Amino acid sequence: MSDIGLMVPGMHETPSRYNVTITVAREGGRLPDPVSFAAAADRAAWRRSASIVSAHTADQIISVITVHAPGRYAAVAVARAVISDALKHQVSAPGQHEGEARRRAAAPRTSAA
Question: Which residue of 44, 45, 58, 70 is surrounded by the most CB atoms within 10 Å?
Fold first, then answer.
C-alpha cells in the first residue's frame, strides 16, 4: 500500500494573494508607450497566473500586480518578472514607426562627396 502525503514536508499553508506595487521611472528620457506596455504586461501576467493594473503619469508607470504565492518574496519575484517581460516584449504602436519614418524622410540629407 502506498503512502500519500504532502509534496513538500512541513508546508501546511496554501498560497496567499499578494498585491505588489512596482514603479517604473522614465528611462533615457522617455517612458514606454502606454498601450503597448499595457498589452505586454497583460500577456506577461497571464503567463504567470497573475493580474496587473497600471497607471501611467508623465514621469512614471505605477503597476499593481496581484499574485497567488506561498510567500511575499515569491510574490515579489513574480511581479518583477511580469514587469521585466512587459518592458522587454512591447510591441511598437503602428503609428510610431510611420511617424519616425516621416521624420527621417523630412530630415535633410548630407552628401559625403
Answer: 45
Q: Give the number of C-alpha atoms closer than 13 A to the C-alpha of residue 75, restricted to the C-beta side.
A: 19
Q: Return the domain boundaries, the chain.
A: 16-101
Residue 80 makes CB contacts below 8 A (sequence gap 6+) with: 22
**Per the structure block, which three cell numbers stand in for 96?**
510610431
Q: What are the tens digits of pLDDT across the range 74-100?
A: 999 999 999 999 999 886 555 544 445
CB contact at 8 A, 65 and 24 = no
CATH architecture of structural domain 16-101: 2-Layer Sandwich (3.30)
Q: Is 104's pLDDT higher than 50?
A: no
